[in-house]
Specification:
mainly alpha; Growth Hormone, Chain: A; 17 helices; 0% strand; globular; MFS transporter
């Protein structure tokens, strides 16, 4: 079986804009994953930061998603995507380059790392909204799942390679060269973004930012397919993060696994995500979009119940770790199937002038549940004990994974048919679409 399907190969060969944007996104993904691991590592090993300070570094990279996603949607809908892609890439590269310079001259401080993390997190929000809003403008509707499959595959590879590269580079070359490598990744993303051609802003009449944000939220929530996808994504991310938090406590305290073994179990899940990303378009073509979408999220939830189940049996450490890793591999596979088609539908359904607003609204709900899940996982572990909590979260996740079974999306055969669920019969207009106010 070929690694890339024919549609992806055609996109990469014949669609210059997609090839450039994907290359830039790949560089940015790798730089982001490297940075996400590098900054806390620097805080712990070089600056000897407290736990609160390390948590702050991670938090300030995530908080902009909640605070700025809707504003990012307004910006993306009003300006050419090339401008946003380039500016945000330059900002992230410059922040990392300055950290490397500070380390080489007078040494880093925790304040510098926190500020850089905030800049990088803010720029990433605007970059991701711009990138995801650009894909449906440069790729035919039928090719969107293949394009997103490649995007998800790139993300999965970056999740595996980024942290490993950060650890290797710090150990072999030191901090300043490692910061230079991360900055170079964003320099590559800047160049790729600058090569984007003939993709302009929608050119809709201007209205206040608050009215634009309100319009985007109303549009997203008024459309049944988008509302169902948004709800499912939010519930799934909440449970995924909650389960991961409980699992870390469960594996370390009750299973007695080492940090290396726990990292291996979780990291191997990216292999499943990579496989699911590359196979999603084929699976959707051989079954239906609706079945792939709904089946993916149920598979992701059901697989995690293998984690507490295997503990019931008296297994050796090697077999135990292998089965736990298998659970996360299948989980990654299912999550990737869902993500590829959820993102594809989110890009295919809205009209061009609502793409940025819908992308931002969706990401706010889908990703805004992550800190709630992390907090809930810790609270449940303290209240019930990690052994009981992991069963509670696993069963709850399986229950909410059936949400899309009650959605009209479940019966959609193709992406075009799923897209038509948001169109008034005979009108050619998307339900909930509003003419922007002057």
């Amino acid at each position: 079986m070929a690694i890339l399907d024919d549609e992806v190969r055609v996109l990469l060969k014949e669609n210059r804009n997609f090839r450039n944007v994907w290359a830039g996104e790949s560089a940015a993904h790798f730089g982001t994953q490297l940075t996400n691991f590098l900054l806390p590592l620097v805080a712990v090993t070089t600056l000897h930061a407290s736990g609160i300070e390390v948590g702050l570094i991670s938090a300030v990279q995530f908080i902009p998603i909640v605070l700025l996603s809707l504003i990012a949607g307004v910006v993306v809908d009003r300006h050419p995507p090339r401008r946003t892609l380039v500016i945000t890439s330059v900002a992230r590269g410059a922040a990392l380059a300055l950290l490397g310079l500070a380390q080489a001259t007078q040494g880093l401080t925790i304040t510098q790392v926190v500020v850089a993390a905030a800049v990088i997190g803010t720029a990433t929000v605007f970059y991701e909204v711009a990138y995801q809003s650009t894909i449906p403008k440069i790729v035919p509707v039928d090719s969107i799942p293949s394009a997103n499959g490649l995007h998800q595959a790139t993300y999965s590879v970056s999740q595996l390679a980024g942290p490993a590269a950060a650890g290797f580079l710090v150990g072999k070359t030191g901090l300043s060269p490692t910061f230079a490598v991360a900055a170079a990744c964003f320099a590559g993303a800047t160049l790729s973004g600058a090569l984007l051609r003939d993709v302009k802003a929608p050119g809709v009449p201007r209205q206040s930012a608050l009215r634009t944000i309100g319009s985007g939220l109303r549009y997203t929530w008024s459309l049944r397919p988008l509302r169902d996808l948004c709800t499912q994504a939010g519930l799934s991310n909440l449970h995924e993060q909650c389960f991961l938090t409980v699992f870390l406590i469960f594996a370390a305290r009750e299973l007695g696994l080492s940090g290396t073994a726990i990292g291996l179990v979780i990291g191997v899940g990216s292999v499943g995500a990579l496989a699911g990303s590359l196979m999603a378009a084929r699976i959707g073509a051989r079954t239906t979009v609706g079945r792939t979408l709904t089946g993916g999220v149920v598979l992701a939830a059901a697989s995690l119940l293998l984690v507490p189940l295997v503990v019931v049996f008296d297994l050796g450490v090697v077999v135990l770790v292998a089965l736990l890793a298998l659970a996360f591999v299948v989980n990654g596979f299912g999550v990737a199937l869902f993500n590829v088609f959820a993102v594809s539908l989110r890009q295919a359904i809205p009209p061009e002038h609502q793409l940025g607003a819908v992308t931002a609204s969706y990401r706010l709900v889908a990703l805004g549940t992550l800190p709630v899940g992390a907090f809930a996982g810790g609270a449940l572990s303290d209240a019930l004990g990690a052994g009981r909590a992991i069963w509670v979260v696993g069963v709850s996740y399986l229950c909410v994974s059936f949400w899309l079974m009650f959605s009209p999306l479940r019966s959609a055969t193709t992406l075009e048919q799923a897209r038509a669920l948001g169109v008034r019969p005979g009108s050619g207009e998307t339900v909930g679409e509003q003419t922007p106010a002057p």
